[in-house]
Every structure is written in C-alpha cells, then in structure tokens.
Give the backbone structure.
Amino acid sequence: MIDQVRTFIQRYEEIESEMGNPAVVADSAKFSKLNKELRALEPGVKRARYYQSRVADLEEAKRILKEESDPELQAMANEELQAVERELPDLEQEIQLLLVPMDPHDVGNVILEIRAGTGGDESCLFAGDLLRMYRAYCEKKGWSFQISSASEGPSGGFKEVKVDVEGEGAYGLLKFESGVHRVQRVPETESQGRVHTSAATVAVLPEADDVEVELRDEDLRIDTFRSSGAGGQHINKTDSAVRLTHIPTGIVVSSQDQRSQIKNREKAFKEMRARLLDKAMSEHQASEAAARRAQVGTGDRSAKIRTYNFPQSRVTDHRINLTLYKLDSVMNGDLQELLDALRMADAREKLGQNAAG
C-alpha cells in the first residue's frame, strides 16, 4: 500500500506544479479540470501523508529495537511500536478508501430538485418535509441554500421545488440522495388513524461550468413569455420568463422567478448545463451497469432508496440495508451518519471492482 500512497501524493504534487505553469493558467479548460481534480484529492492527501509518517515511525522503532542497546531508547521504541501497530489497521482501511478515484464533480455545487410523487396532498407535504431536512443539513455544513423556484401544493408543502446549494463537497455527499424517498405515517387528514404510504422524488444535479458543457447557439431555442404567479404588476406585464430548449436532446428548462429577463436567462442556462452534464454522467454510469449491480452511487431515480417510517421512528436506506431509529433527528438535518455510510459503501464497491479488474 505504501507504493500506492506515494503515487497518490505524487499525483497531487504534479497537479500543483502543473497549475503553476503559465501555459496552463492561460488555458481555462485545462486549468478548471486540474483545479477540480486537485480539490478532490486534497482531503485524502492529508491523511496519506500522515500514514506515511506513521509507517516511518514504525520502521524507526524497529531499527532502534534491533540496533540500539540503550534500555531507555529500547523502552521508548517498544512503546511507539505498539502504538503504531494498534493504529495502522484502521488507518490502512481508511487510506484504502481514500485511494479510490474521486469524481472531480464531488467538490462542487448542486441543483437540488424535490418533486411530490404518489400520495396526493400527503406527498406534497412530505416534499416540504424533505426540503426542511436538506435545509437544516446544509445549515449545519455552512452551505448556502437558496430556493430558485417552487410550486406549492394545494394543502401545503410543494408539488415541486428547486434549490441552489453552494458549498465545498456538496455534490460528493448529496449525490447519494437521488431517488425515490418513501414515507409511512398517518396523514393529518386521516380521521381513523390509518398509516398511509406516500413518496417524493429527489434529483441532485452537479453544477456545470461553461468549460465542461458547451452550449452552441445552433443547438438551442430560446423563448420568452410572461411570468405567472406572484410578483405584482411588473412580473405579469413583461416577457421576463425564459424557456430554453436543447434541440439535440429535447431537454427543456425554464426560469420565471427573477424580475429580469437577463437573470432568468442566466438561471436557465445554468440549469441546462447541469442537466446536460447529469445526462452525460448517467449515460456513462449506465454503460458500467453490468459490472456494478448495487444502487449506491448509480443515481437511479426510479429506485426506492429510503423509507421514513414515522410510527416506528425508523429510517431505512435500502441500498445498504442500514436502519436508524432516530427519525426526528434525521428529519432535523442529522444526515451525516447516513451519508457517510453510503459514501463508504460506494468506495468499497469501487475498490472491489478495481481489484477484480
């Protein structure tokens, strides 16, 4: 493993050096790609360097025990040897997971989309609960959480809501939330106390920049129209809303929540880039489906990924068979245990595939 760690650190140092090259700095596409890779490697490099130092401590302790005769030195070396030997197994497991190649997009921002599914008004209320859950989690992480558009449900909650989440590593954690979330509880409107099952769908799109996704004029149709909904006289009397159609794929996005047509246009282009990047990533993942059977990390949004059972205060993630009996805590944004378990399962699966390959 020490050779793998050395190679890992060397790659990080090579990127650092390459990014200092004036020719690379002038090439915005290459610089952006290298910067994302560097940021993705950063957390692992710190632990990898620590691992290197502990292996060196182990070798030094062995050398002293073999070559030195001073009793005090021998005692200190023996103590250090035992300490390192206790620490190394867990550290090696951690390093093994860190050596799994990261998706460069993991360090970036996301567009989070929540839609009510089966269950009528109750599914809209559940979509609202999920929105509050993610807002609370993002606040704990210190990330920006801005609702960009929303369609409210008839009895509260949301039919659909989109959020811009900005924060270091947002996609790397939230990407595991893509899929169908199911809730089992007694609706407020249920007079006989029967438990109902409803669902909402979550999509997590990686934010793409101009360099990653090129939007050619000939591939786009841009329409403007009058915004509907709240906003007063201005929003109803000007063609400030923008609808963007990507002709080759048929993807359509629209933005009407900003007062300015320019700002709505910017938001529409941002979402279009994210959807095209997400489509490309999904197609790549689908091509590996035969080799990758588990749902963790696949982003399959038709799959039921998690159940929130209110009567039993139980949350179950079906991809990794993890059940937690702390529903209130999870709904208040305590998602880290779930997300860490998903990330670890995803890394272990990739490690297994790499070993098999």
User: Anything to note?
Assistant: The longest strand covers residues 196-206.
